[in-house]
Amino acid sequence: MQAAQTGLPILPRPVPGLVLASASPRRLDLLAQIGLVPERVIDTDIDETPRKAELPPAYVERVARAKAAAARVLLDASALILAADTVVAVGRRLLPKALDEATARRCLDLLSGRRHRVLTAVVLQHPQGCNLRIVESVVAFARLTDAHKQALLDAGDWQGKAGGYAIQGRSAAHIRFLSGSHSNVVGLPLFETAQLLRSRAVIP
């Protein structure tokens, strides 16, 4: 009897030949949300330093393409490589990934009480070429008091996050506005990712 007939949940299925060029557990969780598990995950080690005067859309596209290219050299030519990069931007300024508390605090200081953009470039590299989507969401924090900031820092879910916060974590209590894809802000826009996968008949 099929799982759907018994009322049991349909578990995510491994996708033969699909490789995720990212070690982000958030991207794995998001793919699982739409029922997909990559056959392989590769943590690409590339230089993600922004170039001088590089604008956010150009940056995320360059880095996502570089992740896919780095994975390609390790794989069979028939592999489907899914790569993505997400950045938080205030105007033309790219905010860093917060690797320490001081950086996370500086990000929260800048984001407090104002809007910012979250951009993700998603690349699907296949034997015939490469398809790309760039997705932008607009997010606004309420004004954060020193106590709010400290509580967010103490929670620790800023670690390794672009812009020093995780919308799926404690920061959600301070997000007063969101326009666009929520999953994009988490790290992978699911609608656009599904469109790319459909274009290669990976999913129906």
Question: Can you put this structure into words, describing what you see?
Answer:
The structure is a single chain. The protein is α/β, with parallel strands linked by helices and 204 residues long. It starts with a helix and ends in a 5-residue tail after the last helix. It has a single domain, classed as Maf protein (Alpha-Beta Complex), CATH 3.90.950.10. Helix 2 links the parallel strand 1 and strand 2.
Describe the structure in brief.
The chain is built from 7 helices and 7 strands.
Keywords:
single chain; 204 residues; alpha/beta; Maf protein; seven-stranded mixed beta sheet; 7 strands; 28% strand; globular
> Percent range for helical residues?
25-40%
Please summarize the sheet with the most strands: 7 strands, mixed
Globally, the shape reads globular
CATH topology: Maf protein
Summing up helix and strand content along with how strands pair, one would put the structural category as alpha/beta
Note poorly predicted spans.
none
CATH architecture: Alpha-Beta Complex
What is the tally of helical segments? 7
Alpha-carbon Rg, integer: 18 Å
Amino-to-carboxy terminus distance = 22 Å
- In percent terms, what proportion of residues is strand? 25-35%
Determine and state the CATH class. Alpha Beta
Average pLDDT across residues? 93
